[in-house]
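Annex B. Sample input.
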Amino acid sequence: EACWAGDKAIACIASDNHHENDWYKADVRLIELASGKARVVYRPKHQIGWLSASPSGQSLALVASFSSDRQSTTGDLTLGSVADGTAHRVDTQGVDTTFTAWQSESEVLIAGIRSLDSVLALCDATTARTKDLWSGTETTLGGERYFPFVSPGAAAGDCAVTLEGFFTPQSLAVFRGGKMTVVRRMGPEGPASDLNALGRAEP
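Annex B, continued. Sample output.
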């Protein structure tokens, strides 16, 4: 996994060797584009994933947890500093984070799971506090490897998502200004769908 860290470097999750088991000891490294040199900026205790960097490249966000496979890391939202390598866990109010994206120098868009709910939230990196933007039980934020994933927009909190559910075919939706709007439904509409006769799925 890799992402831009400003316009002169790339941040990546890397290990010293290419063997599969080395991923479990991976760290975060910064690669300077001009020189090609890499340096370790964060050594985690557990497995990490869903790395993203602030526009300046000075701050990082990632997810840390005990994990069995890459791209399935679900757990603690962690914010870190490139300058000194420090990092701290953010209280996400019970959300196991599965996606991170910086939308400014201080705002991190996250998606994840809280119990049976899919959650979209915004983290204020200056205060390490998060605010729920949207949550749903009947529909989820479809994404990579079955975990909530979104495509961030320009404004804080705005994003494009894929909504789907047990009785709900995939739909392309946009979350903007605090409102989720379906742009395109991929399955049959309303009463024409046989899914309506199936009732509801209950936990």
